[in-house]
Amino acid sequence: MPDVDAIPNELLTMPAYTVSEAAKLAGTTAPTVRRWFWGNEITPVFGERTSRTEPPTDISFLMLAEVVVAVKFRRSGVKLDTIRRAHQFARKHFAVEHPFAFKEFEVLGGHVMYEFSLASGEPPLYRAVDTEGMQAALPMEVLRRIRQFNFVPASAFAARWFPLGRDVPIVVDPRFAAGRPSVEGRGIRAETVLRRFFQGGESIEALSEDFELDPYVIEDIIRNMQTLAA
């Protein structure tokens, strides 16, 4: 497995994905991603309202990681304004720009969200993990999503993401395949497999033989085409 220590911070923060690509990978819509970062009719979820007349069009890997986590909070029924305020609270607590993509959020996120609820009066964004309710953890769906990331030890920021789970060797790694979903360690883009299957009419067996991949990997790519075609 490629060493995540070898991923420079510049690669994680440089523009890499269009808004539409980031939205598809995160399982949401392009207008949602655009509003969450640059506002328009709402206050941005991440950061402050921009003064630009035209918002940027590209998303970095760390920005994508934050959207991925925020989508899970949103799907858990958390209000958007609550997510916004929780993100601001976590930014100040950890003193980092991208707290949802920070390793310590996985470890201490439940405690930080507990402190946020006490300070803001907002509904809990955590779950009690003991009978006395003295220990807090992030909601399980959010925690499962965060655990799909590999983190750079030196900076503790997310550096690779396994969007289908760690048991499926499909990775979003900014070093390979231009950061698009690809087969781990091979750099074969999922989009290439999908194009040859759907447009080229090649069979799973033929693709498996040509790419030297287990058939189940091809099947997983096809099964998750809506996400992996980004």
How is this fold's topology laid out?
Elements: H1 9-13, E1 17-18, H2 19-26, H3 30-38, E2 58-59, H4 61-75, H5 80-94, H6 103-120, E3 127-128, E4 136-137, H7 140-146, E5 149-151, E6 158-161, E7 170-171, E8 182-183, H8 190-198, H9 204-211, H10 215-223, H11 225-228
Antiparallel strand pairs: 1-2, 3-4, 5-6, 7-8
Helix pairs in contact: 2-3, 2-4, 4-7, 5-6, 9-10
Structure description:
This protein is mainly α and 230 residues long. The chain has a domain at 162-230: Arc Repressor Mutant, subunit A (Orthogonal Bundle). It has helices at 9-13, 19-26, 30-38, 61-75, 80-94, 103-120, 140-146, 190-198, 204-211, 215-223, 225-228, and strands at 17-18, 58-59, 127-128, 136-137, 149-151, 158-161, 170-171, 182-183. Strands 1-2 form a two-stranded antiparallel sheet. It is elongated and about 60 Å long.
Examine the secondary-structure arrangement and name the CATH architecture of the domain at 162-230. Orthogonal Bundle
Q: Gap between N and C termini, in Å?
A: 23 Å
The helix-and-strand class reads: mainly alpha
Shape: elongated
**Largest sheet data:** 2 strands, antiparallel
Beta percentage is 5-15%
Instruction: Give the ordered list of helices and strands.
Output: HEHHEHHHEEHEEEEHHHH
Going across the biggest sheet, name each strand in turn: 1-2
Rg, nearest Å: 19 Å
By DSSP, the count of extended strands is 8
List the total number of helices: 11
Overall average residue pLDDT: 88
Q: What is the CATH domain class of the domain at 162-230? A: Mainly Alpha
Percent of residues in helices:
40-55%
Which fold name is given in CATH as the topology of the domain at 162-230? Arc Repressor Mutant, subunit A
- Which parts are unreliable, with pLDDT below 50 for 5 consecutive residues or more? none
